[in-house]
Write a structure and sequence with these properties.
By secondary structure, this protein is mainly α. It contains 18 helices and six strands.
């Protein structure tokens, strides 16, 4: 039986019926549909619509549907179910008889899908925040293990200054922790309950919306029934946060691909995450990195697709909103699969520290440190910059580094140079010079590692608290 067939005298066109069904993809919402339906049933009992026996029967039936779906995947191969809501009603009626049809009293599929999607996004946020925390922990572990190993940092893709390898890794920790924070903000805004909103004007029964919201772990009921049934802002915000996560992953993948090339030689690709060439026996290709970069493009596209789907919709519910589900599910599934693999790759990668240290000491990467030396001896900053530029020009002509110029030649550029200038050009001195919060001085990086670990521990505690509440 269709959930809406009483008004109609002719059946749906068979091709259209198959085409407009959403159960093939919204079946993944089953656990949330069952939870929301159980809560609605309790509210119906409290409102005097269901008897105690009917409530028990419905709750047991919903539990049986969930158990069978978990143990028997083919149970979900239902060619008749229009959507996850229809599937549950159909199965419930088959289990307990006409009492199953009472469950839909006072509610609409419009509020059901809005609730199910909020529950799905909320649970996915908790999962993603956990995985981001694990990824950050992996990055920090590797940062700690690299010690005082240095590498070149780049601006405009040109060598700029030396930094600790740990400092570079911590840059990505900052990005991913910001992403985790954005997900937490999104979670706060979405955590309101549409149940009791009806189709558009509110439920026709005196349902306790506060009870339903609290039971499902929402902060409160939604404030407006029209907005509640048509709002997909939470899905758009979630998809856009995922696009930022993917953007950061893609930047990491691109940079790491460069660093793995023979021209850079900074790291060795883990064989467990690489493949070879069917034609060239010597090849080891960065498959995981390239797939991360490619799949992130799909996530960015999904965010755009969601916004385009919603941009011209009048209030309230429109069937177009069905099209917001697949991009949402795809982005979530793609990232949930990707993050543990990225963490595994980072655990396995080997850094060529000697090569990185060597490159960090060539190409005038100590030039700003040299200019700072002059500034500390009273030379105005702009003039110090110019003097070092002239000294570098001499080095370019001679194919040497600043530390190779004799003192008398340096003093011909500026009398402020003394013998201690050469000590300020060593890799250790250049790194130590950046002794400010957020800088690459070894002591500051060690402090940053400790601070990042504390932030990750706070993140884990938040996620654990949400998971405990969800299973209470």
């Amino acid at each position: 039986m269709k959930m809406w067939s009483g008004r109609f005298r002719q059946p749906l066109d068979s091709e259209f019926e198959r085409w407009q069904r959403s159960f093939d993809f919204d079946r993944r919402l089953l656990r949330y549909e069952l939870a929301a339906s159980a809560t609605h049933a309790r509210a119906l009992k409290n409102a005097g619509v269901l008897s105690a026996d009917e409530l028990i029967s419905i709750l047991q039936g919903l539990e049986q549907i969930g158990e069978r779906a978990a143990s028997e995947p083919s149970f979900l191969d239902d060619g008749e179910a229009e959507d996850v809501h229809h599937f549950v009603e159909k199965q419930l009626a088959a289990l307990i008889g006409d009492a199953g049809y009472k469950l839909h009293s006072g509610r609409s599929r419009n509020e059901q899908i809005a609730t199910d999607l909020r529950l799905f996004v909320r649970a996915t946020i908790d999962h993603l925040r956990h995985d981001l925390g694990e990824l950050c922990c992996t990055l920090i572990d590797r940062a700690e293990r690299t010690g005082d190993a240095a590498m070149p940092a780049y601006t405009h893709l040109q060598k700029a200054e030396p930094v600790l390898v740990a400092h570079w890794l911590l840059a990505y920790v900052e990005m991913f922790l910001r992403d985790a924070g954005r997900l937490a903000d999104c979670r706060k805004r979405l955590n309101v309950c549409p149940l009791g909103s009806g189709a558009v004007a509110g439920a026709t029964l005196a349902l306790d919306r506060g009870f339903m919201a609290e039971t499902l772990g929402f902060h409160r009921p939604t404030a407006n029934s029209i907005d509640a049934t048509s709002d997909r802002d939470f899905a758009l915000e979630f998809a856009n946060v995922l696009s930022l996560v993917s953007l950061h992953l893609s930047r990491w993948a691109e940079e790491t691909i460069l660093f793995s090339s023979q021209e850079y030689g900074f790291l060795e690709l883990p064989e467990a995450y690489s493949t070879g060439s069917s034609a060239m026996p010597q090849k080891k290709n960065p498959d995981l990195l390239e797939l991360v970069r490619g799949k992130c493009g799909r996530i960015l596209g999904n965010a755009t697709a969601l916004m385009v789907s919603v941009k011209s919709l009048p209030l309230a519910y429109n069937k177009d909103l069905q099209e917001t589900q697949e991009p949402l599910f795809d982005s979530a599934a793609t990232l949930l699969a990707m993050l543990p693999l990225v963490a595994g790759w980072i655990k396995s990668v080997e850094f060529h520290s000697e090569r990185m240290n060597q490159v960090a000491q060539s190409g005038f990467m100590n030039a700003w440190a040299a200019a700072t030396y002059l500034v500390r001896r009273g030379v105005p900053s702009r003039l110090a910059h110019e003097r070092i530029g002239k000294a570098i020009q001499i080095c370019v002509e001679r194919n040497c580094e600043l530390q190779d110029l004799p003192l008398h030649e340096l003093q011909s550029v500026s009398p402020a140079f003394s013998q201690d200038f050469y000590d300020s050009l060593t890799l250790a001195s250049v790194l130590e010079m950046h002794d400010v919060p957020g800088g690459t001085a070894p002591a500051r990086v060690r402090q940053a590692i400790d601070a990042a670990r504390k932030r990750i521990e706070s993140l884990r505690e938040e996620v654990h608290a949400h998971e405990t509440h969800a299973h209470a």
